[in-house]
């Protein structure tokens, strides 16, 4: 017999099935510090001696979602990688402060709870956590048919890391003549999708078409998950060879790198120092978007920028080359020009 709660649109048994399906997936992300995860009222993460031996331990946290990229995933009925985006948006921010990632929590709100869909989403979150050095220790699923339409859902995440206060990265360490090292993005990442969707609608783009310059259908290029940089960048953080890191999200290079530039200095960028991926040219041409606006909205092929002292640049480049990490030297820090970040034209 159908309960009144089910008649109202909420299926408790589907929620229980979904939790059972994801328990083993989540457990694969756990490290030895996880005392308890899914199942209790709160997850437990032990700060072991390895973590508390820091002189001045500081917890670094970050929270985010994936924006309207979700709408393309829903339209394509492809939920396998959107969880990676969720983790990346939080984990890359925490990494940019110089923190060692610890654990991650997620929230999934749905119009209709389908265990298979939830399992696909959480698998992606787990993959992202493994790539980011995070333990997925808890989360929440909420079936809310009064808020979301049946196929709709939303995601948010929360990451926590730890660092020694004296080793935190940021504008306070940036100096004149520091070198800017841009790390390749995997594509559009998870910002600017309101403009992406407007371009698709206005230009009547075919999501299943392989446009010139692309190696896959447009929808696959747009759903390519955000790059996670932990394994490439954290060894450089540990070595003490970085002054600052900028995670390039909404606002592009200017807004995000600008956070890392102290008063009196400017990050001068050479726009010819890297090749902008074809997906951005497809969008720019189809939407007739100016280069200035493209730079303000998108990462334009660089998902993270490292700020490095000239004395350490050879060692940093050697490490990145050994890792086969795609990067370019995109500029340097100079005495203040007009803005904290400026393109060299």
UniProtKB/TrEMBL annotation:
SUPFAM superfamilies: PurM C-terminal domain-like, PurM N-terminal domain-like. The keyword Heme does not apply. Its main location: cytoplasm. The keyword Protein biosynthesis does not apply. It holds the Pfam family AIRS. Its EC number is 6.3.3.1. Residues 176-336 form the PurM-like C-terminal domain. Keywords: ATP-binding, Cytoplasm, Ligase, Nucleotide-binding, Purine biosynthesis. Pathway: Purine metabolism; IMP biosynthesis via de novo pathway; 5-amino-1-(5-phospho-D-ribosyl)imidazole from N(2)-formyl-N(1)-(5-phospho-D-ribosyl)glycinamide: step 2/2. It catalyses: 2-formamido-N(1)-(5-O-phospho-beta-D-ribosyl)acetamidine + ATP = 5-amino-1-(5-phospho-beta-D-ribosyl)imidazole + ADP + phosphate + H(+). It is an enzyme of class 6 (ligase). Gene3D superfamilies: PurM-like C-terminal domain, PurM-like, N-terminal domain. It is found in: Cytoplasm. Belongs to the AIR synthase family. This is Phosphoribosylformylglycinamidine cyclo-ligase. The gene is purM.
């Amino acid at each position: 017999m159908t309960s009144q709660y089910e008649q109202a649109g909420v299926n408790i048994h589907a929620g229980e099935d979904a939790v059972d399906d994801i328990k083993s997936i989540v457990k694969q992300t756990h490290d030895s510090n996880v005392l308890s995860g899914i199942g209790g009222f709160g997850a437990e993460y032990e700060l072991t001696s390895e973590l508390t031996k820091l002189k001045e331990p500081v917890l670094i946290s970050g929270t985010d979602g994936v924006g309207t990229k979700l709408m393309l995933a829903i339209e394509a009925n492809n939920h396998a990688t959107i969880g990676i985006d969720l983790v990346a948006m939080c984990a890359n921010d925490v990494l940019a402060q110089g923190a060692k990632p610890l654990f991650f929590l997620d929230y999934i709100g749905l119009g209709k709870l389908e265990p298979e869909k939830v399992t696909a989403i959480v698998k992606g979150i787990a993959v992202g956590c493994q790539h980011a050095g995070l333990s997925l220790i808890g989360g929440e699923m909420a079936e809310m048919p009064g808020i979301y339409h049946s196929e709709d859902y939303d995601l948010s995440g929360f990451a926590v890391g730890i660092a020694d206060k004296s080793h935190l990265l940021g504008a306070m360490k940036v100096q004149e003549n520091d070198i800017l090292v841009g790390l390749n993005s995997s594509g559009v990442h998870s910002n600017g999708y309101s403009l992406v969707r407007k371009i698709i609608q206005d230009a009547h783009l075919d999501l299943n078409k392989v446009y010139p310059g692309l190696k896959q259908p447009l929808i696959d290029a747009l759903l390519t998950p955000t790059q996670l940089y932990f394994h490439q960048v954290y060894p450089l953080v540990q070595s003490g060879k970085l002054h600052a890191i900028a995670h390039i999200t909404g606002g592009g290079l200017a807004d995000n790198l600008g956070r890392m530039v102290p008063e009196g200095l400017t990050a001068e960028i050479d726009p010819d120092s890297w090749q902008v991926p074809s997906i951005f040219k497809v969008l720019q041409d189809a939407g007739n978007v100016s280069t200035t606006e493209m730079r303000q909205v998108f990462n334009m092929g660089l998902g993270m920028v490292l700020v490095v002292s000239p004395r350490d640049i050879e060692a940093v480049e050697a490490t990145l080359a050994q890792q086969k990490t795609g990067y370019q030297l995109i500029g340097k820090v100079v005495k203040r020009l007009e803005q904290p970040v400026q393109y060299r034209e």
